[in-house]
Design goal:
Largest sheet: 6 strands, mixed
Shape: elongated
Helix content: 55-70%
Strand order of the largest sheet: 6-7-8-3-9-10
Strand content: 5-15%
Number of helices: 21
CATH topology of the domain at 6-320: ABC transporter transmembrane region fold
Length: 598
């Protein structure tokens, strides 16, 4: 991935609301680090007070030094605890805000984006990737400041204590920094590979879990295990590669640091024996040398954290940089309450990239005008473009040719939220959320009164079965409404649409997957829902649309026939062929049923 120096700045912008908490945490870190620079000198005094005054009975200096050490340790522990809490608070807040921002942005993207990205990959970016960047926005920055102070202070005190020993110690620092930079760059690249591999594995798991019934019905558990296992193996190998690099860096850092200390101890011992350095000064120097070595190692660790976090943040900002292909108007036209007139004027539509190297048109020059309140049925063979046509009304996609108007204005002139507030959708595969029945109905109009929720359920023929549950409207439906039958889910979805009270209604084969009893209940609820609304009905069973004001027959992306049920039967076109074929199939099915029961 291309390295962008602005990426870190963008990441730190999420810490702005917590800047004062962060500043106090950094101050506490700096104070703690500063105190840590004092105790080596006191240790040196303690050594000299003990060994250079052998036989003396005056322990006052020794006592004062110990008291000072205990005080410094107490203050250092206090400020260390404060910085730990404050910076953890900043990190947790940043992660929460970042997750909210990414999720809110995802919800603004068009269906085209979600068709091109796996759900598991997106959720992985929301969870593991965001969690990885937490250290940068909290402890890593504070540690960078603290370790920098410690390094500068320790180096100054090293030189003050023994210039000759300092040259030996400082000679190792360029080697340590060069190693950290070289290996750290590779760690960043590998960290990106790890995040990508984890996201791929998550995507496979999400698909298998959401479609577990299909997996089990085809006894494809082994296939899915293999697919997920392959993703896990890739993430494991990438993580192993990163671990090797981190281990290499840690080993090199350890050898350079402790090797330098061994040389310093050897040379310092010679200086003590020669009388040019006191034992206390040697101990003090060793402590400062340890601090320098530990600080350099800590800084390389911080550097690694930055590399890992920048790799993960790159994937996050890729999402935040995504822009919807459904642009919002700069000055939206008002649409408080639509009349419901829908007009297609020479509309064409193409799913870009549907086939390799081609642009296959799904809709071709569709022109029709639907007055407000009219019920229009769409029929035709699979792939004719029926669902695509109605999905253009709420702007799930934009037309690629011609103009689509609602109440005489191009739908692109309205704000998306205003337009979609006027459109209700009851699809064939009803999606309920994993809360209660009440919460699912309230999705149509959050904040509605409980009496309005019940009235919507009654109108949808749902109140009776809801009341039969022990918890009534507070019954939890499970993920995707799995605890309800197909007919029950559809009626809850209809109640949701009734509560929304849209001016334009889209029914996409809302009864095709139901048994006869459920279909009758759902159809009665739909008829109530359609009253007074502009309604587009995509029908599989032609018997359910006989009373539509208008029936449009679509074939190969065009409207080929337009009229009432009687008119189209009399015309003898595709509609009549479809109707007679379905009528004969229903007669044959009934005959088989009668034969079986007799």
């Amino acid at each position: 991935m291309r390295r962008d120096p602005r990426q870190l700045v963008r990441l730190l912008a999420f810490a702005r609301p917590y800047r004062w908490v962060f500043v106090v945490g950094v101050v506490a870190t700096l104070v703690s680090s500063g105190l840590n620079l004092v105790f080596p000198a006191l240790f040196g005094r303690l050594i000299d007070a003990s060994f250079l005054r052998v036989g003396s009975t005056d322990t006052s200096q020794l006592d004062r030094t110990v008291v000072a050490l205990l005080g410094i340790f107490a203050l250092s522990a206090l400020f260390g605890a404060a910085q730990s809490f404050l910076l953890s608070r900043v990190g947790a807040g940043v992660v929460a805000d970042l997750r909210r921002a990414v999720f809110a942005h995802l919800l603004t993207l068009s269906p085209r984006f979600f068709g091109e990205h796996k759900t598991g990959d997106l959720t992985s970016r929301l969870t593991s990737d965001v969690g990885t960047v937490q250290t940068v926005t909290s402890t890593a920055l504070a540690q960078l400041a603290a370790q920098s102070v410690s390094l500068v202070g320790a180096v100054v005190l090293l030189v003050t204590t023994s210039p000759r020993l300092s040259l030996l110690t400082l000679a190792v620092i360029p080697l340590v920094i060069g190693t950290a930079v070289t290996i750290g760059r590779r760690i960043r690249r590998v960290s990106r590979e790890v995040q990508d591999a984890v996201a791929g594995a998550n995507a496979s798991a999400e698909e298998a879990i959401s479609g577990v019934r299909v997996v089990q019905s085809f006894t494809a558990e082994g296939v899915e295990e293999g697919r997920y296992g392959q993703g896990v193996t890739q993430s494991f190998l990438a993580a192993l590669k990163r671990a090797r690099l981190q281990a290499l860096m840690a080993g090199v850092m350890s050898f350079l640091t402790f090797g330098a200390l061994a040389v310093v101890l050897w040379y310092g011992g010679r200086l003590v024996m020669a009388g040019s350095l006191t034992p206390g000064n040697l101990v003090t120097f060793l402590f400062y040398a340890l601090q320098v070595g530990g600080t350099v190692v800590a800084l390389t660790g911080v550097f690694n954290q930055f590399q890992e976090a920048l790799g993960a943040s790159g994937r996050i900002f890729e999402l935040l940089d995504e822009r919807s292909d459904l642009p919002q108007p700069a000055q939206p036209a008002p649409l408080a309450r639509a009349e419901g007139r829908v007009s297609f004027d020479g509309v064409s539509f193409t799913y870009d990239g549907e086939t390799e190297g081609t642009r296959a048109a799904v809709l071709r020059d569709v022109t029709l005008d639907v007055p407000a309140g009219q019920v229009v049925a769409l029929v035709g063979p699979s792939g004719a473009g029926k669902t695509t046509l109605v999905n253009l009304i709420p702007r799930f996609w934009d037309v690629t040719g011609g103009t689509l108007r609602v109440d005489g204005r191009d739908v692109r002139d309205y704000a998306l939220a205003d337009l979609r507030a006027q459109v209700g959708l009851v699809p064939q595969e009803t999606l309920l959320f994993s809360g209660s029945i009440r919460e699912n109905i309230l999705y149509g109009r959050p904040g509605a009164h409980p009496d309005e929720v019940e009235a919507a359920a009654r109108a949808a023929n749902a109140h009776e079965f809801i009341s039969a549950f022990p918890h009534g409207y507070d019954t939890v439906v499970g993920e995707r409404g799995v605890k309800l039958s197909g007919g029950q889910r559809q009626r809850v979805a209809i109640a949701r649409a009734i509560l929304k009270d849209p001016r334009i209604l889209i029914l996409d084969e809302a009864t095709s997957a139901l048994d006869n009893e459920s279909e009758a209940l759902v159809q009665a609820a739909l008829e109530r829902l359609m009253q007074g609304r502009t309604t587009f009905v995509i029908a599989h069973r032609l018997s359910t649309i006989r009373n539509a004001d208008r029936i449009l027959v679509m074939d190969a992306g065009r409207v080929t026939e337009d009229g009432t049920h009687a008119q189209l039967l009399a015309a003898g076109g595709l509609y009549r062929d479809l109707y007679e074929l379905q009528f004969r199939a229903e007669q044959d099915a009934q005959a088989d049923l009668n034969l079986t029961t007799s």
